[in-house]
Amino acid sequence: MSTVYDCDSPDGRSAGLSRAASSLRGGGLVVLPTDTVYGIGADAFDPEAVRALLSAKGRGPDMPVPVLVGSWNTVDGLVMSVPRQARALIEAFWPGGLSLVLPQAPSLSWDLGETRGTVNLRMPLHPVALDLLREVGPMAVSSANTTGNPPAATVEQAREQLGEAVPVYLDGGPSGEPVASTIVDLTGDQPRVLREGAVGRDELAAELGVELPVE
User: Fold this and answer.
1) Does the bond joining 95 to the residue before it have cis omega, within 30 degrees of 0?
2) Cα 51 from chain centroid?
3) What are the residues whose beta carbons fall under 8 Å from the beta carbon of 145, sequence distance 6 or more?
4) Is the pTM of this model over 0.85?
5) Domain count, the chain
6) Is residue 111 situated within a structural domain?
7) Range of 200's domain?
8) Which residue numbers delimit the YrdC-like domain (predicted)?
9) What is the strand order of the sheet 139-143 is part of?
10) Which residue, 36, 71, 90, 214, is most buried by CB atoms nearer than 10 A?
């Protein structure tokens, strides 16, 4: 049976984070608040848990799962290299609503779906998410909704859609306006905005010193 933990209460937050960490280490799933929308997460290095995440959402490996990290430094161990443009964007917008697609480190033994050798990384600006990430390490996290339904802005909305497929729900209150992160692809010669969201195209262009074409 799934359990909801009130993370606005110190006792609830402590108990919830402990139970969430235990669930993740055992191959289970967790719903957690982020600064954009609620997410459903698994241990990024547990392929079976990632498959369970995709199954809970009702989608396949053709839509790979992004990875959330708890610090800037974590990125160095996950990608082939961190280019200058990535460093600039990380320093300007992390933690926050910006996801970066980079070539993954070839030594990593994970299966996030059909990533074609890349990884989508973000550091969220939410204390509960950051506490959990710093406890358990990188997590594969997708929006806490089933395919075809809107992302969850509250833990109740997430539980209505995902139900008993997730044993632990961390309630951090409403997420506010449910705006997804902006996704920037840095795997090619020029940065590409794959999805516009929380960070505006003009902000990105100003930080990078380049024009970002609309695709």
Assistant:
1) yes
2) 16
3) 57, 151, 152, 157, 158, 161, 162
4) yes
5) 1
6) yes
7) 3-208
8) 14-199
9) 3-6, 168-171, 30-32, 39-43, 139-143, 67-68, 118-122, 98-103, 182-185, 192-195
10) 36
